[in-house]
Amino acid sequence: MLKLAIIGRPNVGKSTLFNRMVGKKLALVHDEPGITRDWRETEAVFYNAPLILLDTAGVEDGAAESLPARMTQTTRNALARADVALLVVDARAGLTAADRDVAALLRKSGKPVLLLANKCDHDLPAAYDELHALGFGEAIAASAEHGVGMRDLYDALKPYLEKAEAAEAPEDEGADEAAEKPLHLAITGRPNAGKSTLVNALVGYDRMLTGPEAGLTRDSIHIPFDYAGRSIRLVDTPGLRRTTKVHEDVEKMSVAESLRAIRLAHVVVLVVDANAMFENQDLHLAQLVEQEGRALIIAINKWDTITNKNEVTAALRHFLDKNIAQLPDIPIIMISARNGEKLDKLMDGIFAIETLWNTRISTSALNRWLQPLLEHHPAPLVKGRRIKIRYITQIKTRPPTFVLWCNNTTDLPDTYLRYLTNAMRQAFQLPGITLRVLLRKSDNPYQEA
Length: 449
What we know:
- This protein is an alpha/beta fold.
- The protein is built from 11 helices and 17 strands.
- The chain has 3 domains: 2-167, Rossmann fold (3-Layer(aba) Sandwich), CATH 3.40.50.300; 183-357, Rossmann fold (3-Layer(aba) Sandwich), CATH 3.40.50; 363-441, 2-Layer Sandwich (GMP Synthetase, Chain A, domain 3).
């Protein structure tokens, strides 16, 4: 499949074009330049042609190790993985020195380059003819915002698409069509906890932009990779601060992206800085994951910097048992993302919690467990009458969800429902995951219709 990297200086409309070609708003778009910092990769179908699109950060000059220089390096990394580069320029602004610098970078790469003049909404701007000086032939006049020129872009891409299709090996007819679906794994946490460093360590290369600045990641970046033969769709999310500190439009969009990633995940890794252990925002994130019914695992990062490890571990477990009592025994893994320590243990924990999250218990096993429990500790009396619990069944997994049938659903105390849930958790060995128990009223055969 053809890989196309969208490249250009900041604020020329690269992410808008990316969204247009994908057909949905995946990348954050804003008038502020430099919104995209990490390159985003996704499969798309453009005029019925499958391809892989890479949305990259703006190419800028900057001192070594500065943020612009590191962003430019992420673009170089994306370009190295691409088959063709699409150089996007702002036709209304005309040719700039920055455009020439990007063009020079592309020529050095040796990749085929297509030139697209964006923001040609109606007539061609007067500066359009200047673009010939870049040496990439006639520029494709387009407006990513309004969808103008997309057919011309497809026609320019067509020879490369056909070449990529011809080069692909035929599929193995004996391949398993029902291949295992990837595990959706979201990495979340407060800014500067080490989320992107952890992602880089897991995938094995510098995929995400990292540095001392807090809040470098602004977009949710999806990264497919394999671990121990398992396909994983990894999502690095922007750091979440307290809502009262979120004011700018871009940060609000980043928060929305993070929350959406949590809702769509199977397993969520909450990364916590060992030197700033569990602030209110960490607790809020853990509670949010529990409310969404996702499987949760906590990674305490920078553990190599802690000296009193036993004391810190005990304090953390006490804090969690007190503040997230509905999720007893949440898996906690102490890691160092920078040094690559205990990452195998983290992945083992992720696979284990996913297995629990997919648990299915037969109705017969559930009711064999339930009846002795009710005899030992029956439901309480309400208004002089006992609530009769008849049977229980599981209706779904991810998370395990059960229906409890009884003659009175309104007066059963929450404390008794928690008692049943905790007893079920212990009996079927389901620590650290959300269990949902719904109440349904059973029919009374003696009650007239």
